[in-house]
Amino acid sequence: MVVLSQPAALDHYSLIKTCKPTSAFTGIPVIDLRDPEAKTLIVKSCEEFGFFKLVNHGVPMEFIARLEAEAIRFFNLPQSEKDKAGPPDPFGYGSKRIGSNGDVGWIEYLLLNTNPQVTSLKTLNIFRQNSEIFRSAVNDYITAVKRMAFEVLELLADGLKIEPRNVLSRLLRDEKSDSCFRLNHYPPCPELQALSGRTLIGFGEHTDPQIISVLRSNNTSGLQICLRDETWVSVPPDQTSFFINVGDALQVMTNGRLRSVRHRVLADSLRSRVSMIYFGGPPLSEKIRPLPSLVAEGEESLYKEFTWWEYKTSAYKSRLADYRLGLFEKTATTSQ
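^ gibberellin 2beta-dioxygenase, sequence as received from the core. Prediction below:
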């Protein structure tokens, strides 16, 4: 028996074996938000991948660059300064630990509340401890990304031929929308160079529980998605574009027609990765169930009805890789 050793610094982290280098996947759908066929292409991409790249999105590059600079400034602070913004509750600064159920990753992050109707002391403290430039950068970016997310969801509704066209976007527009925003920093891990054929998990495989997620990162690779055939492929980074993920709630609302995408992030040995994600969620009291117009006559709903609060609570009790929707699926046969 041969025991592979690894640097002590990585003892508590997940390493996966890679049989061969994973080349960048060239099949990621790319959609121009201004394309007259965008509504059709969005539906097709969400059906096949649960994921697509969005270009010509309308979010000013100056907003993106300013927020990335502020994020890097924060993550470059001394650890003692960053720790003042933690521990997460779930909002605030976190490092290495992801959630409270034992998941860890080669990551540090800031999770911020985006709903002014909900008071998060951690979010307020983070803004107080940092410059007004930081608060302004976050607010400008989120406002622009929300506007783009609303448009994507309305085009999706058009493509699915459901009315009214704001049936999805209204949930994110709602003043009680339970949405949040996350800044991730994956530091370089030089120790990986000594581990031939091994890759370090930055953020373990999972699906996002919300309706949609809007991701943007710098030009460091690391993001991977899982295709329908269970193959993991690397997503080529593009710092000028956004990536849209279908979330679990949207999978339920479309009765499984659109599938939430499993994804993960791998650490890099030399370069740091910075990403920013807007998670668009409905109000906590919103009942999540398949939209009637997407359930054909004679077709059964695949899911039990539940509130977003019930699903969110269940998701926070699970591990990252758990199939969270399993608890909310209807059984194949129902006793009378």
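DSSP finds eight helices and 15 strands in the chain.
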